[in-house]
Design brief:
477 residues; Aspartate Aminotransferase, domain 1; 2 domains; binds pyridoxal-5'-phosphate
Length: 477
């Protein structure tokens, strides 16, 4: 059953209410105590934050770095393996990994880091000439993901932007279709949502004055096939973007037959299907596309794929690649103009290509993933055991090395249910601050937890213990 976006007029609908947990009288004071403790632990970060106010908004060079739900951010000093130290000397076990890019470890002492260092020291960083690494990368991605043609960009956002432009050029259509509350990076046309049925609006602070938010963006609810068909049947949609399941804002899972039906609808109405595996690629070397047998026209990833360096990739089906090449070749009489502006000039530089190659060779292996999955299994089992012990109405879902904490008991098949599971209004804040103050670094935005090859069973046990304490304290037992 899909809940169509009736919700967001009243944010209180997003806060779970559970018997025995008193948010106002019990959890809020606990949050106050944690924030006090945070201040006590981070005086040097606070001093840097104050100094930074003069020259950086919110004291950070990129606002993602202020997205910790804290009164002020902490400043990192250094990171190694799955540990990060802040400027006050506090040590954290990293279950966050910069929201995935460093999942294979910070500065690991291995062939990947040595190869990257060698590239910087001896072999050059940037050039507009491709290196042989790019061919290796394309061959390897083709084998793993199943799409034959590849393009390298600066990040997943960059890949999605490229993919949308390409889809528009090739199909001659202007619109895109995406799912409500999905996130696909800093791509203007996707920074929209549908707070009420049929009403597309700009999301967060991404306004384009004078432009109708629905001008080129259509939005449907995940698992709502009728909504998708309604959006596609005018045959003006160039591309449908989706993750295999939605990861940003809790996990929204696909119902039986959803992906097969999406594929069929896209084919029927001449819309290209883009699968964004930026997050879900931590499910294995070929992502969920391989594991679930998905059949996209375009495939996008980034984040973890570049061994911590900013890299994005885009895979294309042969027919689509040929059409695009035809378009580019059409500009040949005017010299190179068809090739200009397709991605950034600094994309696919020598350093990023080397990092990507080394990452695919050494990180993206079944052996490395097996390690990550083993610690994730242990963690998930432990956290579920705690839920059972307390008979708490919460749930834990996993996909590969990625875990979602939901403060609701059921699997979410729509964006509202998933968002409610995030635990806005007390639950997630307390969980996050409690962990942070005990040296456990979680992804704040959406309750995700990652395990890398360096994550030990002992690390997982520490997080399970914190989960137990948090639930105990929430109930006041
Ligand atoms: C599904 C998805 N796609 C794309 C992106 C954009 O990635 P980046 O910020 O590295 O460009 C994100 C970022 O969180 C994401 O979650």
């Amino acid at each position: 059953m899909t809940t169509t976006g009736r919700i967001y007029d009243d944010y209180s609908v997003l806060t779970p209410i559970h018997d025995g947990i008193d948010i106002m009288d019990r959890v809020m004071p606990l949050i106050g105590e944690e924030l006090e403790l945070y201040r006590e632990r981070t005086p040097k970060s606070f001093a840097l934050y104050e100094r930074a106010q003069k020259h950086m908004i919110k004291g950070v060079p990129c606002t993602w770095q202020a997205d910790w739900l804290l009164p002020y951010t902490f400043y990192a000093d250094h990171a190694k393996g799955n540990r990060l130290w802040d400027v006050d000397g506090n040590e954290y076990i990293d279950f966050h990994f910069g929201d995935t890019p460093s999942i294979f470890g910070h500065s690991p002492d291995n062939a990947v880091t040595r190869g990257i260092a060698d590239q910087i020291l001896n072999r050059g960083v940037t050039s507009l000439a491709p290196t042989e690494d790019s061919i290796f990368i394309s061959e390897m991605l083709a084998e793993r993901v199943g799409l034959p043609y590849w393009y390298v960009t600066l990040s997943a956002s960059d890949s999605n932007r490229m993919a949308i432009n390409l889809a528009r050029s090739v199909t001659g259509r202007s619109k895109l279709l995406m799912f409500n509350t999905a996130y696909h990076g800093t791509v203007d046309d996707t920074l929209k949502w549908m707070p009420r049925p049929g009403q597309v609006e700009y999301r967060w602070a991404h306004f384009r004055p004078g432009e109708d938010a629905a001008a080129v963006t259509k939005i449907a609810e995940f698992n709502d096939l009728e909504g998708v068909e309604n959006a596609l049947k005018d045959r003006d949609v160039a591309v449908l973007l989706t993750e295999p399941f939605l990861t940003d804002g809790g996990f929204t899972m696909p119902q039986e037959g959803w992906h097969k039906a999406l594929r069929e609808l896209c084919t029927r109405y001449g819309t290209l299907l883009l699968i964004d595996e930026t997050h879900t690629q931590t499910s294995g070397p070929g992502g969920l596309t391989r594991l679930w047998g998905l059949d996209p026209d375009i495939w996008v990833s980034g984040k973890s794929i570049g061994a911590g360096l900013p890299v994005g990739v885009m895979g294309l089906k042969e027919e689509l690649a040929r059409k695009w090449q035809g378009l580019l070749d059409g500009f040949a009489p005017w010299g190179i103009c068809g090739l200009t502006g397709q991605g950034t000039t600094n994309s696919a530089n020598m350093l990023c290509l080397r990092a990507l190659r080394l990452s695919l060779e050494h990180n993206y292996t079944d052996k490395t993933f097996a390690k990550m999955f083993a610690s994730m299994d242990h963690l998930a089992r432990g956290m579920r055991g705690v839920i059972e012990k307390h008979n708490a109405p919460f749930r834990i879902d996993t996909a590969g090395a990625r875990l979602n904490v939901s403060f609701m008991p059921d699997v979410a098949y729509d964006a509202l249910s998933a968002a409610k599971g995030v635990g806005f209004g007390g639950y997630r804040e307390y969980w996050l601050y409690y962990c942070l103050n005990r040296g456990l670094l979680l992804i704040p935005i959406v309750n995700m937890i990652l395990t890398g090859p360096d994550t030990t069973i002992d690390d997982c046990d520490k997080l399970v213990k914190a989960w137990d304490e948090v639930i105990t304290n929430m109930y006041g037992r």
